[in-house]
Specification:
Elements lengths: L8 H6 L3 H47 L8 H25 L4 H8 L1 H10 L3 H17 L9 H27 L4 H22 L6 H26 L4 H7 L3 H13 L5 H31 L4
Helix pairs in contact: 2-3, 2-8, 2-9, 2-11, 3-7, 3-8, 4-7, 4-11, 5-6, 5-7, 5-10, 6-12, 7-9
């Protein structure tokens, strides 16, 4: 599906448009996370992360076949930091969902991208959209998180900080490496970092065929597809707008939790989702309107 050269698959992904790429990636990653929750009793949180990263790295390296020569020291530094960030984000998030519900974990995690959207944006209106999305995020969490495991809350907030860093370094990697080559190399870095942790926690459980199969499915849903789609989107979408679109993740996670984990939504939570969707739509309209005005001013530039 992904080509390291000039193949047509990235173009087919790109035909969705940057917003469509982000939304498709969000659906994939949250349904993958729901599947991962069902896998944790078999392999543990760190074991699931290891399986996810390792399987995703193998798939991406085989399909993309990235070149190892011809890259500068800065290129390698960028991809290594991207890999470290990716591994830390996954590890912290899965430690969180091992302790608190999926929807609450994603709700807390998305605070990282929302903070980035305010810091990265140069337009005051984006701060308004971020504020509206933030209100929806807190409503989705029931208006407070006092009843949740505080260690799980801390892990989720840490994952949110790493998510914000992931957005930055994903964009930088996409500019320095063709197609998904940088993603494949970064995934390999993350997998190598987590392999000792997963083996220490889960040992031989990681070799169980059913566990390996489920872990591979999680890798495709939560890593290969969404990271590739988001990397392509970040080449054409400002980091601030991308970060606000990430506020849709709690709504997607709630849907995945309902369909896979039998977690129901209250009317109060449905209202929260509506606020988050409204904020994301506002961010997209702002970006589209701004691009349209630039084209009107300089249509032949």
């Amino acid at each position: 599906m992904i080509s390291g050269g000039g193949g047509g698959s990235p173009r087919r992904f790109g035909s969705l448009g940057p917003v469509g790429l982000v939304l498709a990636g969000g659906v994939s990653v949250q349904f993958g996370a729901a599947v991962a929750v069902t896998l944790m009793p078999r392999a543990g949180a760190l074991g699931v992360v290891t399986l996810r990263l390792f399987a995703a790295a193998v798939v991406l390296l085989l399909v993309c076949r990235p070149r190892l020569r011809g890259h500068s020291r800065t290129d390698w530094g960028t991809v290594i930091v991207f890999g470290i960030t990716m591994g830390a984000m996954n590890g912290l998030f899965y430690q969180a969902v091992a302790r608190i519900p999926l929807g609450a974990a994603v709700t807390l995690e998305v605070l990282g991208p929302l903070t980035l959207s305010v810091l990265a944006s140069r337009r005051a209106v984006n701060a308004v959209w971020a504020g509206l999305a933030l209100l929806g995020v807190f409503l989705l969490g029931g208006g407070g998180f006092g009843d949740l495991d505080l260690v799980g809350v801390a892990f989720a907030l840490g994952a949110g900080a790493m998510w914000a860093a992931y957005i930055v370094f994903s964009a930088r990697t996409g500019r320095r490496f063709p197609q998904a080559d940088g993603l494949a190399l970064a995934m390999a870095v993350a997998a190598l970092l987590f392999l000792p942790l997963g083996v220490a926690e889960s040992g031989g459980k990681l070799l169980d065929p059913v566990t390996v199969g489920l872990g591979s499915a999680v890798a495709v849903l939560s890593s290969v597809l969404p990271y590739t789609l988001e990397l392509l989107a970040l080449r054409r979408l400002p980091a601030s707008t991308f970060a606000i679109l990430m506020s849709l993740e709690p709504a997607i996670a709630a849907t995945a939790g309902f369909l896979i984990l039998d977690q129901t939504l209250s009317p109060f939570q449905a209202l929260a989702i509506a606020l988050v969707v409204a904020a994301s739509m506002g961010a997209v309209r702002t970006q589209v309107g701004r691009r349209g005005r630039r084209e009107m001013v300089a249509p032949d530039a």
